[in-house]
UniProtKB/TrEMBL annotation:
SUPFAM superfamilies for the chain: EAL domain-like
Domain EAL: 4-251
Protein name as annotated: EAL domain, c-di-GMP-specific phosphodiesterase class I (Or its enzymatically inactive variant)
InterPro entries xref list: Cyclic-di-GMP_PDE-like, DICT_dom, EAL_dom, EAL_sf
Name of a matching Pfam family: DICT
Species of provenance: Asanoa ishikariensis
Gene3D superfamilies registered for this protein in UniProt: EAL domain
Gene Ontology terms for molecular function: cyclic-guanylate-specific phosphodiesterase activity
Length: 406
């Protein structure tokens, strides 16, 4: 029998009676320190669930995170739509799983109305990048279909997911307060900053610095390349003000990535040379890519299509398991693949009729660098090629990411 979910009557009454209310914190242009928009934050009724962390902690424990996220986002959208701030943007947090839940159509209905009259920026936390990649991609696609922009939030909290920024392709990159308020230029901080600057230069995304509490933090934000800022220096969360000076700064809108239907081999073989090769030579080629993951100090993702779980031997399990201990996200795809095939690596089973069962792929994406080997079965062995173009490697990773599980 399925385990019965615990109950919390006080929390259930909050959801039932919609006693969540939004507060708003200004987001400003660093150049003129005038307002471009407001981030919506949630508060509960007075008591133990008044703060957002308390609300979301109990929601997670009770398995009601999507319900709470829907309620917070919906209430914020309703309040902002009823305001006079037609020229300002609304920043609102989303859990990607919300767009898979039972309230998806109702939520999208609320925001479809809002987006006809307002600019909306959907904020997705950095943690969601690696927790459930397909849900994340679906959320990004749905948001952009409704004309919303996408912000990647809390960047710097989990440096291991920095390499996934190009998969999300955000319009706005929000650097976490822990980076802005760091008291020294540590390797970890500089690593985050360099990765963010690289992504912003590649895509045209804007950088937003969080946690600006004084002029010193503001100077740090400028040095990080930020053009947007948020923090107590500009205003604490509260009700929407009666009036606000609208900045002339326009928010960025990057070109969204299209998720292709083709396999990595079909995509990369159009631009990169392909040669007949043997199984041992293919193993040497893929080993070279995996060796980069073994020795990198970069935030990175390694996606490996083995075609079939039978191709994952004990030596490979140890290798992939060790790579995960270096903070690298590893995904292993194959027919019959176990969900936990090696260390923290995540296994992704492929259907028997999936075209990927006739291919082999190793794709490595770092914050600044990417490489990949792609191959397809052939009567005399394999047709195989190598790609070192970061944009093409990232693009060829997207159809694999759509197959990943949470």
């Amino acid at each position: 029998m399925a385990a019965e979910q615990p109950r919390d009557d006080e929390f259930e009454s909050i959801l039932r009676d919609r006693t969540i209310y939004p507060v708003f914190q200004p987001v400003v242009s660093i150049v003129d320190q005038t307002v471009v928009g407001f981030e919506a934050l949630a508060r509960g009724p007075a008591g133990r669930y008044e703060t957002a962390p308390a609300l979301f902690e109990v929601a997670t424990r009770l398995g009601r995170s999507a319900d709470l996220n829907w309620l917070c986002a919906g209430v914020a959208g309703e309040h902002f739509l009823a305001s006079e701030f037609t020229d300002f943007a609304l920043f609102v947090n989303f859990d990607p799983l919300t767009l898979r839940g039972p309230f998806r159509d109702r939520l999208l209905g609320v925001f479809a109305d809002l987006m006809r009259e307002r600019q909306v920026i959907i904020e997705i936390t950095e943690r969601a990048v690696t927790q459930d990649p397909p849900a994340l991609m679906d959320a990004v696609i749905q948001a952009r279909r409704l004309s919303a922009r996408v912000a990647l939030d809390d960047v710097g909290v989990e440096p291991s997911s920095l390499a996934a920024m190009p998969l999300v392709n955000p319009d706005i990159i929000k650097i976490d307060r822990s980076v802005v308020q760091a008291h020294s230029s540590t390797w970890a901080v500089s690593h985050v900053v360099n990765a963010v600057l690289h992504e912003a230069a590649r895509s045209g995304a804007q950088i937003l610095a969080e946690g600006i509490e004084d002029e010193g933090n503001l100077e740090v934000a400028r040095s990080l390349g930020a053009t947007l800022a948020q923090g107590y220096l500009f205003g604490r969360p509260g009700p929407l003000p009666a009036v606000a000076n609208r900045s002339t700064l326009e928010l960025a809108r990057v070109t969204p990535r299209q998720v292709p239907e083709q396999t990595p081999f079909e995509m990369l073989s159009r631009t990169d040379a392909v040669h007949l090769t043997t199984a041992p030579l293919l193993a040497a080629m893929t080993g070279h890519i995996e060796n980069q993951a073994l020795h990198t100090s970069d935030a990175a993702i390694l996606v490996v299509n083995l075609a079939d779980a039978a191709n994952l031997d004990d030596e490979a399990r140890l290798r992939y398991g060790y790579i995960t201990t270096r903070g690298i996200e590893v995904y292993l795809l194959g027919h019959g693949m176990d969900p936990t095939p090696a260390g923290r690596a995540r296994g992704v089973p492929l259907a028997a009729d999936d075209p990927l069962v006739h291919e082999r792929t190793v794709l490595f994406i770092g914050s600044h660098y990417a490489s990949g080997v792609f191959a397809r079965e052939h009567a005399d062995g394999f047709e195989a090629g190598v790609c070192y173009d970061r944009e093409r490697v990232v693009a060829s990773t997207l159809p694999l990411v759509r197959r990943l599980g949470p």
